[in-house]
Amino acid sequence: MTTNFVAERTATGSLRIASVPSTHVYVRHLRPPDGPSPFVHLPDPDPDHPSRSTTSTWWPPVMLRPEWAATADFDVFHVQFGFDACSPEDLQRLVDVLRERGKPLVLTAHDLRNPHHPTPQLHDEQLGVLITAADAVVTLTEGAAAQIRRRWDREAIVLPHPHVVELDTMARLRRERAARDTDEFRVGVHIKSLRESMDPFPVLEVLDETLAGLPGAVLQVNGHRDVLDADGARRDDELARWLEQKAAAGRIDLRVHDFLPDDQLWEYLASLDVAVLPYRFGTHSGWLEACRDLGTTVVAPTCGFYADQGPVLSYGFDESHFDAESLRDAVWFAHAARPDHGADVDERRAQRIAVSRAHEELYRRLLS
Length: 368
What we know:
single chain, Rossmann fold, six-stranded parallel β-sheet, Glycosyltransferase involved in cell wall biosynthesis
């Protein structure tokens, strides 16, 4: 692609963005909610057949292969997720290819600590390559930007996380929540498949004790079969037995299932009054954003920058300490006050438009 062609496309048409990945909901919602988009995201290549695009399977990301980046037609290369599949050396080779081609590199730093890694060393090395080389760094909160400034001496652009739930679904489930007539107070903990960042046991013990004394309170725990089934590939015996005993005693509402499709996931989150995040480390959360879309109050740990994303109730939890009293206080407050920390549809639509425009301006500035 010649410089003149890039300039012409930049001035008059949609930009072609190699976004890693393009099918993730966060990336999809970087485009405006209505009308044409000023930029298009290239389809994710199929990992088994890199010459073909895919609509569901993008792992491991083909776009991060230097040989793909060396020949593909794009204007800007934007890394979002998936680089934990690459060694720092592989990422440096990718950076070298982009430099040779004169292609701008943008990194959105979602995770400053990888929630799937037990220790931070590898992710730190991967971030070091990308943050140092990037022509622009984006992140989601001021707290994360301050850490990036302190650790890598880079100024990150702070852009908020757009909505996760589709706007029409969000509006419908919000209406249904408003029409509910019940005194029930349902608190949910979703342990999924127990990522390294999760430590649900101390959280569940406090919630079990606390909710037993609150009128109408129900503790609902959802987990995946691989962790909780008797023959699950990653079964946690201690946790599974505790949950089974509490469920048999009628103390918790235990739901064991496989990965939920989006429509069921949103219905489930909208049925909760409170969602408690049982994380001992992390950075940002799309789960938190989905809860805010649906009007579900989030009780989030003090690790990471969850409270910077939007209004939450916080409790003390990180890799070095757990503050049971602060968790009890947060739940008591939620039960008494029933706060609505969510964002309404109009707010989310306006936010998405602003975020889309900010990305367009960034891309065009880098190409000018």
